[in-house]
Design brief:
The chain is built from eleven helices and eleven strands. The protein is of the alpha/beta class. Strands 6-7-8-3-9-10 form a six-stranded mixed β-sheet, sandwiched between helices. The protein has a five-stranded antiparallel β-sheet with strand order 5-4-1-2-11, with helices on one face. β1 and β2 form a beta hairpin. Bound molecules: adenosine-5'-diphosphate and magnesium ion (MG).
Length: 291
């Protein structure tokens, strides 16, 4: 695919409508995502922003069909016309990895310390492509590592996760996602654990991948500055609610909601602080419904 038409909006690849996520607890039902709507056009990049606890991860896990025990999603999540919320687990397993890939904040928890990274990328690839030899899969793994700019990929593929820095491990996770040629990549706080310089490099890599492969991207972050680097549309969440959405230009130049304005005000401070929006942190307002 050429990189020309990545912003083509002839059809939404992902359309989330009236999505709610609830957990059943001893005190009743807690709604952690409350009737949110958004869409990602084919090849588009959406940033989901909000402070810790606002429901960003639960939104992405609902899309992947990976909500923790006790969590239920209602509404609709249409991906390429299919409603993911009514797909069987076997179909979801195929969609995950194969069509929608997910990258998490902490690559170490997704990598097995006892296998080389090359073997792990290759085996992940083989688990989604039947009949591929170990040798062919290894070649795919090395190519993917090369595409995320890991120097000397053929040799590095034989190294173990602990032999890489945090930024390099995140590149390996991105390589693993890329090897599947997904239509959509969901990255949940992929740079939060990294220092500022490495953070910028990983964001640049995500932008490059999006341009070169035409894959759509959902970038989840608590950091508005991160969104402006990569995304073209933005959703702002707070306490499970969607407070604002729009193009990055519109939201940054003319935020409609007081909460978004406060997040924006905190952006310049990120450079000298640790990258947390602590200064504007507001307690999570999770709705409790007694049953
Ligand atoms: N297993 C669970 N049971 C009940 N509530 C949960 C569970 N996991 C997360 N939550 C709650 O859901 C809310 C949203 O969490 P999350 O989506 O992880 O926030 P974010 O990713 O924006 O930081 C939080 O208030 C959190 O406490
Ligand atoms: Mg989260």
């Amino acid at each position: 695919m050429t990189g020309e038409n990545v912003n083509d909006t002839t059809g939404d690849m992902l359309r989330v409508e009236d999505l709610s996520v609830e957990f059943r607890t001893a005190n009743g039902v807690t709604r952690v995502v409350d009737s949110i709507d958004f869409a990602v056009p084919r090849g588009g990049a959406l940033g989901i922003v909000g402070e810790s606890g606002s429901g960003k991860s639960m939104t992405s896990l609902a899309i992947m069909g990976l909500l923790p025990k006790g969590g239920t999603a209602t509404g609709s999540i249409r991906f390429d016309g299919k409603d993911l919320l009514s797909e069987r687990e076997s179909a979801m397993r195929r969609i995950r990895g194969d069509r929608i890939a997910m990258i998490f904040q902490d690559p170490l928890s997704s990598l097995n310390p006892y296998y080389t990274v090359g073997v792990q990328i290759a085996e992940a690839y083989r688990s989604h492509r039947s009949g591929v030899s170990a040798r062919a899969a290894k070649k795919v793994a090395v190519e993917a590592m090369d595409r995320v700019h890991i120097h000397d990929a053929a040799r590095r593929a034989d190294h173990y996760p602990h032999q890489f820095s945090g930024g390099m491990r995140q590149r390996i996770m991105i390589a693993m996602a890329l090897s599947m040629e997904p239509d959509l990549i969901i990255a949940d706080e992929p740079t939060t654990a990294l220092d500022v310089t490495v953070q910028a490099q990983i964001l640049a890599l995500l932008a490059e991948i999006r341009r070169d492969t035409g894959a759509g991207l959902i970038l989840i972050t608590h950091d508005l500055a991160v969104v402006s680097e990569v995304a073209d549309r933005i959703v702002v969440m707070r306490g499970g609610h969607l407070v604002e959405k729009g193009s990055v230009e519109d939201v940054f130049s003319d935020p409609q909601h007081e909460y978004t304005r406060r997040l924006l005000d905190a952006v310049p401070r990120i450079d000298d602080e640790i990258g947390e929006l602590r200064t504007t942190a507001i307690p999570v307002v999770a709705e409790e419904e007694k049953r």
